[in-house]
Amino acid sequence: KPVPSLIEAFEGQQRIAVEKLMRLVEDADIHRYRAAAENLLEDIDSVTIVSAALKLLTKTSEVAPVQLSVEAPPRVNKPRNQMQGTNRAYPPQKGFNRPYKDNQAGGSSRPRRPKV
Question: Are the CB atoms for 40 and 81 separated by under 8 Å?
Fold first, then answer.
């Protein structure tokens, strides 16, 4: 099944919201809201009020669309001493990068296993 377009998704949300409103009108105990509704109708026409109710039920986003640009954002280079250890799972340990002591003749940089 193809993915619905933005317009189709919006229409589907509206249809579901209208169905919810109709079920509430038919089944729910809404008499507690009647006084508030009558107060609203004194100042605002009924179509505007129902439109606002549908907007609440469809949970329409108020977020402005994101505009992407072709250029990448400017990068700020950190000094090397601030970057040390940032990509490691554990922070560097004391003496971690020190070379092994030269215990053998020949200048080996690491200790060797004894031959058996």
Answer: no
Helix (H, G, I), strand (E, B) or coil at 102: coil
What is the pLDDT at residue 41?
A: 94
Q: Which two tokens stand for residue 21?
A: 């409103």
> pTM for this one?
0.45
Amino acid at 7: I
Give dist(CA 106, CA 113) in Å, integer: 15
Contacts (Cβ under 8 Å, ≥6 apart) of 84: 92
First to last CA, the chain: 69
Residue 75 has what pLDDT? 78
Top-confidence residue, 108 or 41: 41
Cα–Cα distance, 95 to 4 (Å, whole number): 59
Distance, in Å, from the CA atom of 108 to the CA atom of 100, rounded to the nearest integer, reads 9
Residue 32 confidence (pLDDT): 87
